[in-house]
């Protein structure tokens, strides 16, 4: 019986040592798990923060995109207006070029008629001058 008691006491001590060992292992495991939870919570917070920043940047980019699209629409409307004005100015320029061509043609015709008239008058002056000389000579001869 004493041997059984000693053996039983050894078994109890052995079980107690195993229990103590398991408790220690469990405490270390719980501690490690707690640290891992804290690390994961921190990582989750960082990811959440990063996501919030990216969402904010995305919203800001959306605002910028809309502003740029609006500016583009305004610029395109201005460009169309300028092209329309340009087209009207080209039409006006073609019209004025036509008027200038007509005026040049008219001026050339008037200049040609003036030169023809000048030639006729010059010829007439020459004829009259010749007659005057003849009459002067005849008057001189008669005197």
Automatic annotation (TrEMBL):
Q: Which residues form the CCDC92/74 N-terminal domain?
A: 9-62
Give the matching InterPro entries: CCDC74A/CCDC74B/CCDC92 (IPR040370), CCDC92/74_N (IPR039496)
What Pfam families does this protein map onto?
CCDC92
| This protein's UniProt keywords | Coiled coil
Q: Which residues form a coiled coil?
A: 65-99
Write the protein's name.
CCD92 protein
Organism whose genome encodes this protein: Steatornis caripensis (Oilbird)
Taxonomically, what lineage is the organism? Answer: Eukaryota, Metazoa, Chordata, Craniata, Vertebrata
């Amino acid at each position: 019986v004493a041997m059984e008691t000693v053996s039983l006491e050894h078994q109890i001590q052995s079980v107690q040592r195993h229990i103590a060992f398991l408790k220690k292992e469990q405490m270390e495991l719980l501690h490690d798990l707690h640290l891992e939870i804290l690390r994961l919570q921190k990582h989750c917070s960082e990811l959440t923060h990063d996501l919030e920043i990216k969402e904010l940047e995305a919203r800001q980019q959306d605002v910028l995109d809309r502003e740029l699209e609006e500016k583009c629409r305004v610029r395109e409307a201005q460009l169309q207006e300028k092209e329309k004005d340009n087209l009207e100015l080209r039409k006006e320029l073609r019209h004025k070029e036509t008027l200038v061509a007509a005026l040049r043609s008219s001026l050339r015709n008037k200049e040609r008629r003036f030169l023809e008239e000048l030639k006729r008058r010059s010829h007439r002056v020459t004829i009259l001058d010749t007659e005057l000389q003849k009459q002067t000579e005849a008057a001189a001869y008669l005197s």
